[in-house]
Amino acid sequence: MKILITGGTGYIGSHTAVELIKDGHEVVIVDDLSNSFEDVIDKIKTITNVLVPFHKIDCKNYDLLDKLFKEENFDGIIHFAGFKAVGESTKEPLKYYENNLLSTINLAKLMEKYDVSHFIFSSSATVYGDQPSPLSEKSPLMETTNPYGETKKMCERILNDYAKNRSDKTIVLLRYFNPIGAHKSGLLGEIPQGTPNNLMPYITQVASKKRDKLFIFGNDYDTVDGTGVRDYIHVVDLAKGHLAALNKANKGCSVYNLGTGVGISVLELVETFKKINKIDIPYEIVARRAGDIATVYASSEKAFKELNWETSLSVEDMVRDSWNFEKNIE
Ligand code: UFG
User: Fold this and answer.
1) Around Cβ 132, how many Cβ atoms within 10 Å?
2) 124, 256, 304, 318: most buried by Cβ count inside 10 Å?
3) Domain-located, residue 139
4) DSSP character string of 121-177
5) What CATH number is given to the structural domain containing 97?
6) What is the three-class DSSP state of 256?
């Protein structure tokens, strides 16, 4: 199939482009480069031997996208492009609502106009809010603590409503847990701008001595050691989840969790990183971060049963590949 990947030079988008190409799909990438770099296209070429056509377009720009859809005959859209910084979204909510909603609406309108059959949307476990894990696709959607999370819920709703009138379309909402790790080549990975918000990029920057120590946000949660528990998933396994959705999802709107089904704590992740990479990670326990939840992990049985997808990479692979990538960008 010929697939448009929006946000395709970003962290998850670039890994997904590689997996799609390896599986024989044709990929076109659109990105506004607001949080990524164009040289990712060369890196994808080094890995796959395919030079992916790239267009620098902001998905809020309907006319530019329309021109592209007219020229290309897309069979599917995988929509990653979006703002994702939780903290920033509370400070600049309008920027988040405008960008994330308008991009999704533009792409859905173009799906309709050009009769595109598949739409895969990058959603998040954040739509479940604070409720007991494991979270299944049947768990209710809850109030999230920030505008970023609300944009994910709203986009899901928009696509779900659209699908109700178009039973011939395949629309898939993928709810990611915590992606970490990087491509084995060390060429693709997560490059945060400024101070990392997420745990793994912070750990790798402490390992490379860009930062003195890790701040662990609270050790008084009701968890195995008091620190927050999350379901970390290797970004390559996550990328393969998109391929499975593209190749196997049924018509209509379906929702899948993409996680491992196993939760581990901040301290457990830090200890695994130290052991596998043989590097010390100095840390300090500080106050809880506002809006954080004690425990979040997936039930990923539905994706296993219906898409025949399961994760194959371990936490050890994740910490090794994350560090391998960080060493490469030094
Ligand atoms: N943490 C620290 N120190 C840090 C960063 C994080 O102790 O410097 C802790 C957090 O308190 C949490 C865990 O590490 O317990 C994971 O935090 P992340 O920021 O890496 O990830 P979150 O689970 O908070 O958020 C992620 C994505 C969101 C998404 C959410 C869905 O970043 O986009 O998962 O559950 F909405």
Assistant:
1) 10
2) 318
3) yes
4) EEEEGGGG-S-PSSB-TTSPP---SSHHHHHHHHHHHHHHHHHHT-TTSEEEEEEE-
5) 3.40.50.720
6) strand
Structure tokens of 66? 């329309």
Distance in angstroms (rounded) separating the CA atoms of residues 247 and 240: 11
Residue 268 confidence (pLDDT) above 90: yes
Q: Looking at ligand 1, which residue's alpha carbon is closest to its atom 12?
A: 228
Cα–Cα distance for residue pair 170/117, rounded to 1 Å: 6
Query: Which token pair is 275?
Result: 């052991």
pLDDT at 145 (0 to 100): 84
Question: What radius of gyration do the chain's Cα atoms show?
Answer: 19
* Residue 244 resides in a domain: yes
Q: Which of 96, 148, 162, 176 is catalytic?
A: 148
3-state secondary structure of 118: strand
| Amino acid at site 35 | N
Residue 294 lies in a domain: no
Number of domains making up the chain: 1
Strands 264-265 and 229-230: antiparallel
148 is a catalytic site residue: yes
Instruction: Please give the Cα distance from 111 to 302 (Å, whole number).
Output: 26
12 lines ligand 1 (CB under 6 A): no
Geometric angle at alpha carbon 16, from 305 and 26, rounded to 5°: 105
Lookup result for tokens 């993409």: 258
Q: Is the CB of 257 within 6 Å of ligand 1? A: no
Share of the chain above pLDDT 90, in %: 97
In-domain check, residue 272: no
Ligand 1 proximity of 84 Cβ (cutoff 6 Å)? yes
Residue 292, both tokens: 């954080």
Give the domain range for residue 135.
Answer: 2-182+233-258
Rounded distance between C-alpha atoms, residue 170 and residue 162, angstroms: 11
Is 0.85 surpassed by the pTM of this model? yes
Q: Give 13: exposed, middle or buried? Use CB within 10 Å, 0-12, 13-18, 19+.
A: buried
What gap in Å lies between CA 299 and CA 113, rounded to an integer? 36
Per-residue model confidence (pLDDT) at position 172: 98
| C-beta 145 within 6 A of ligand 1 | no
